[in-house]
Amino acid sequence: MASCDRRRFITYGLRASALILASASARAACVDPDEMSGSVQSMRESLEYTDSAPDASQACRDCAYFKPVKTGDSCAPCEVLTSPVSASGHCVSWTKRS
Ligand code: SF4
């Protein structure tokens, strides 16, 4: 009986961990991909958007099209992708903020 309880405890623990990781991943992604329209998803793909810029000096936070409400926002609308993007993201339309 004790091993059954332990197995159940481990199963619930793993499920809870998976939910926490999924939630953190959704936050890291800034926006739930399932909530984006097909055209927005296509635009993100065609412009090779990624949540993590390969070159930190060309991250969305320093792009002219990134429009945070306040300085330091980790997620803000992008005028090109017409959807929220991560401050640490990047796409091929990156343009240095002047
Ligand atoms: S245009 Fe590209 S690099 Fe610039 S904010 Fe939008 S997604 Fe980021």
Automatic annotation (TrEMBL):
Segments forming domain High potential iron-sulfur proteins family profile: 31-98
User: Which InterPro entries does the annotation name?
Assistant: High_potential_FeS_prot, HIPIP_sf
Any single Pfam family the record assigns to this protein = HIPIP
Keyword terms of this UniProt record: 4Fe-4S, Electron transport, Iron, Iron-sulfur, Metal-binding, Signal, Transport
Recorded superkingdom: Bacteria
Q: Which residues form the signal peptide?
A: 1-28
Q: How does it assemble?
A: Homodimer.
- Function recorded in the entry: Specific class of high-redox-potential 4Fe-4S ferredoxins. Functions in anaerobic electron transport in most purple and in some other photosynthetic bacteria and in at least one genus (Paracoccus) of halophilic, denitrifying bacteria.
Its family remark reads: Belongs to the high-potential iron-sulfur protein (HiPIP) family.
Identify this protein by name.
High-potential iron-sulfur protein
Q: Which organism is it from?
A: Steroidobacter gossypii
